[in-house]
Amino acid sequence: MAKDWKERLGVVYSTNPDFGYEKAEAADQETLPPNKQDLRVSLDKKNRKGKAVTLVTGFVGTDDNLKALGKLLKSKCGVGGSAKDGEVMIQGDFRDKVMQILQAEGYKAKRSGG
């Protein structure tokens, strides 16, 4: 019983005698190869006090691979940014340069927005 409480942290009490505690499984997402990725490159100024950022969205894969892609883009552009929640944020308007870098790496990238 001592180990069992960790498995059922989400349920406090159940009156159902047949109730089965379900364990949450961490679903690791496989990273698609670059030619199968459908990335969108756009410029975003909303909620950033007027400062422009280049957003790369649509990445399907693990967080480690997303961070590696973000690091590559940030180093090639020579600016800061972040990579989380399936998108890479690059500080500044680098849409053209990001498109060239992604296409040189073999990614399918499209420019979206204005």
What do you see in this structure?
The chain is α+β, with helices and mostly antiparallel strands. It has a single domain (29-111), classed as Translation Initiation Factor Eif1 (2-Layer Sandwich), CATH 3.30.780. The protein is built from 3 helices and 5 strands, in the order αββαββαβ. It has a 5-stranded mixed beta sheet, covered by helices on one side. Strand 1 (38-44) and strand 2 form a beta hairpin. The longest helix is centred in the middle third of the chain and has 15 residues, at 63-77. 18% of the residues are buried.
Overall average pLDDT = 84
Separation, N- and C-terminal Cα atoms: 59 Å
In the CATH hierarchy, what is the architecture at level 2?
Answer: 2-Layer Sandwich
* Residue runs with pLDDT of under 50 for 5 or more positions: none
Strand content: 15-25%
How many helical elements? 3
| Total domain count | 1
| CATH secondary-structure class | Alpha Beta
Shape summary: elongated
Structure, briefly:
Helix content is 25%, strand content 22%.
Fold topology:
Layout: H1 4-7, E1 38-44, E2 53-57, H2 63-77, E3 81-84, E4 87-91, H3 95-104, E5 108-111
Parallel strand pairs: 1-5
Antiparallel strand pairs: 1-2, 2-4, 3-4
Which tags fit this structure?
Translation Initiation Factor Eif1; alpha+beta; initiation factor; single chain; 114 residues; five-stranded mixed sheet; translation regulation; SUI1_dom_sf; protein biosynthesis
